[in-house]
Write a structure and sequence with these properties.
This protein is of the alpha+beta class. The protein has two domains: 149 residues, no CATH class; 106 residues, Jelly Rolls. 49% of the residues lie in helices and 29% in strands. Strands 1, 2, 3, 4, 5, 6, 7 and 8 form an eight-stranded antiparallel β-sheet that branches. The chain is elongated and about 75 Å long. Keywords: Membrane, Transmembrane, Transmembrane helix.
């Protein structure tokens, strides 16, 4: 097997493994699209499932040859160790504050990677048997992953949204995913942003987060009391402050109001 074919088989299988992990996580969360998207868009996940996993496959192969044991049992054991080792290293900072939390986080995270890494081994064993298989496996996975990252799919029913003067109001019978609100701000100005949720069932998961594009837009501080959704914004440049609201199967109304402070 040539070096390019070996690499293409590993990288194509790694993308397919990441896609399968995304689908499995969707079912694990009860089809919570926002949580699954946050997982998929996390650079650490890409580093673990693409870079680290491909490098581990080379290392595991080298170790098996050195031990003169290239049996299926040996490779499964090596991929199990690889799936755990990454988290033992990643969570080292936690070890200095709590040993039990360190062990819990390591073992909990390892559940997903150990299963995924073993799955990678079996799929890669299949794809390497033909020069075409890596492309048939890898390209569809890459395309689907890119579509998910670009589109950020959400499921809505009876959704209606309207911008008014200093206000955004959205009503929906069902929202599983997230929507973005654009709030215009000017450099050097201060604003107060209030969010009011009126949900049919407030026990379902819901919340807010700042869009990554607005990370350098200015300072955003929560000034509300207890569970009051009230924020103060200091804009460092003129742009739209993008705030994301999200939920899992929630229904009701959400209202954003904003005003410039003196």
């Amino acid at each position: 097997m040539g070096k390019f074919h070996s690499f293409s088989s590993r990288i194509g299988t790694a993308f397919m493994t990441l896609l399968i992990a995304y689908v499995v996580y969707l079912f694990y969360t009860g089809f919570h699209l926002t949580e699954a998207f946050d997982l998929l868009s996390n650079p650490i996940i890409w580093a673990v499932f693409i870079l680290y996993l491909v490098l581990s496959s080379y290392v595991n192969e080298w170790i098996a040859r050195k031990l003169e044991d290239e049996s299926r049992r040996m490779f499964v054991s090596l991929y199990m160790i690889s799936g755990m080792f990454v988290w033992f290293v990643f969570y080292i900072p936690v070890l200095f504050s709590s040993f039990f939390v360190y062990i819990y986080l390591t073992l909990y995270s390892s559940i997903f990677t150990v299963i995924a890494f073993i799955l990678f081994y079996f799929i890669e064993s299949f794809t390497r048997k033909s020069r075409r298989r890596p492309f048939f496996v890898g390209f569809p996975a890459i395309i689907i992953l890119m579509i998910i990252l670009i589109v950020n799919p959400s499921i809505t029913e009876g959704f209606e949204a309207e911008y008014r003067d200093g206000e955004y109001v959205a009503t929906f019978e069902k929202l599983n995913g997230e929507e973005v609100v654009d709030i215009p701000v000017e450099e050097g100005h201060h604003y107060e942003v209030s969010v009011n949720w009126e949900l049919d069932d407030d026990t379902l998961p819901y919340g807010l987060k700042i869009h990554p594009s607005a990370s350098n837009l200015g300072n955003i501080e929560h000034i509300g009391e207890d569970e009051e959704w009230l924020y103060q914004v200091e804009a460092h440049r003129t742009d739209d402050l993008q705030i994301i609201y999200h939920g899992k199967d929630i229904g009701g109304t959400i209202t954003f109001t904003w005003r410039e402070l003196d």
